[in-house]
User: Which sequence fits this backbone?
């Protein structure tokens, strides 16, 4: 597991039912591309987050496949419908098998 | 062999045109596109790719895609060592078929976006980004 991986997610606290809201996510991660060389002249092996998903009450909102061309600390912004009160679940999948999760509740009102 | 003035000019123009033509086609990009579309024809329109004209730092270039009707959108960077950038698949609760992120670009190049529409057709768009400092280390 890479060090210091910390997900950050911005979701409004409440929304009207049926509204579209914008979600911003950022996770601190090196996203080592596998193209760079270290001090010893050898390639640093690739280590990135290769997949990100967002679900709301078990229904898929977005599923993103990430490649090494995504910047350090991958930032993803997207829109979601909010049909009812519930919880957003965010999942990041690391190359090394680690899974980072975060969740945010949203109220109707 | 003697050339008239007219022939010399024509030869010069031909040579200049030859010089501009190649290098635009990148086999890895074509492979990635074929893998995504299955060789289907790509139309135009209905897909917007937002990218800066000039990026000072190739390590973080903000881009956005927006394609109402799209089921998924693939982004490729034609001038990177590996052309793949990201693929967005929109689920049933997606509020709009739009997303933005930050990408790495190795140098000045075309960023290509291909959207798979809900009806199974494909559209393509691209945008040239000038990069002052490349983002691939090394």
Assistant:
């Amino acid at each position: 597991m890479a060090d210091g991986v910390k997900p950050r997610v911005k979701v409004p606290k409440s929304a009207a039912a049926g509204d579209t809201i914008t979600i911003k996510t950022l996770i601190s991660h090196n996203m080592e591309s596998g193209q760079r060389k270290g001090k010893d002249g050898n390639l640093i092996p690739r280590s990135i987050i290769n997949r990100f998903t967002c679900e709301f009450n078990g229904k898929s909102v977005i599923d993103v496949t990430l490649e090494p061309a995504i910047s350090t600390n991958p930032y993803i912004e997207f829109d979601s419908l909010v049909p009812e009160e519930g919880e957003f679940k965010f999942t990041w999948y690391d190359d090394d098998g680690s899974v980072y999760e975060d969740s945010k509740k949203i109220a109707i009102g | 062999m003697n050339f008239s003035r007219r022939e010399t000019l024509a030869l010069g123009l031909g040579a200049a045109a030859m010089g501009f033509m190649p290098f635009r086609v990148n086999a890895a990009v074509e492979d990635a596109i074929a893998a995504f579309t299955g060789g289907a024809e790509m139309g135009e329109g209905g897909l917007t790719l937002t990218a800066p004209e000039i990026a000072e730092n190739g390590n973080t270039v903000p881009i956005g895609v927006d394609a109402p009707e799209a089921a998924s959108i693939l982004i490729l960077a034609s001038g990177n060592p590996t052309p793949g950038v990201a693929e967005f698949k929109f689920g049933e609760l997606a509020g709009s078929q739009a997303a933005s992120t930050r990408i790495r670009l190795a140098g000045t190049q075309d960023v290509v976006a291909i959207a798979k529409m809900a009806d199974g057709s494909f559209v393509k768009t691209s945008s040239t980004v000038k990069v002052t400092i490349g983002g691939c280390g090394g």
Notes: Chain A touches chain B through 33 residues (CB under 8 Å). Residues 89 and 103 of chain A are 4 Å apart (CA to CA).
